[in-house]
Amino acid sequence: MANILVVEDEKPISDLITMNLKLVGHQFVKAFSGAEMLPILEQEQFDLILLDVMLPGLDGFEMIRRIRHHHVPVIFITARDSLADRITGFDLGAEDYIIKPFEILELLARINVVLRRNVQEHTEFMADGVDVHLAARKIYKDGEIVELTAREFDLLEVLIQNRNIALSREKLLELAWGYEFEGDTRTVDVHIRQLRKKLGWEERIKTVFKLGYRLESEG
Ligand code: CA
Fold first, then answer.
1. How far is the CA of 100 from the centre of ligand 1 (A)?
2. 19 CB contacts (<8 Å, ≥6 apart)?
3. Which pLDDT does position 212 carry in this prediction?
4. Domain with 109 in it: what CATH number?
5. What is the tens place of the pLDDT at every residue in 92-127?
6. From ligand 1's centre to the CA of 188, what distance in Å?
7. How far is the CA of 53 from the centre of ligand 1 (A)?
């Protein structure tokens, strides 16, 4: 889906992030310092940079100044949560800011927001003869257009963006339709049933016992 540069000197955090990026289908390159990141940026195109603020040598704030000419969106990752740091981060042109320790689903959600804001190409997902064009909100099954309701599409989009991750019914409600949505979790079941039927995805959207659902994907 996207190519992401992860600049984080703490290996366990870097591993946690990249493992989850991989699960949802993103590509990534790891760098462990600012010095390491510069030559990588010269060689390869990225859709997004996850940039730790506290790095050995030059910190993230200094690095974002030095890479501005690449015009790659940046999300800062930092343990420091003071208001002053947040302002500095946004002043320097970061798209978002996430505080350690963070929930991985929250990080993935923010990545998706930034990518959607910045990536112009059609994001596509293909499985079992179904072709999903996320940007155009169009779905084809064996070449024929599939009609989904707006709610069904929103739910499908969340499943695709968090593919291979088990999501609770509550989380699906929140991510697909927002905190303010006054639905109960059975609403999720109803919409999942419709998606499975319309797309022929009875096997692809797995029920996770006592939790919720997971969209399975090899890619
Ligand atoms: Ca660090």
1. 10
2. none
3. 96
4. 3.40.50.2300
5. 788 888 988 899 999 999 999 888 877 654 457 889
6. 39
7. 6
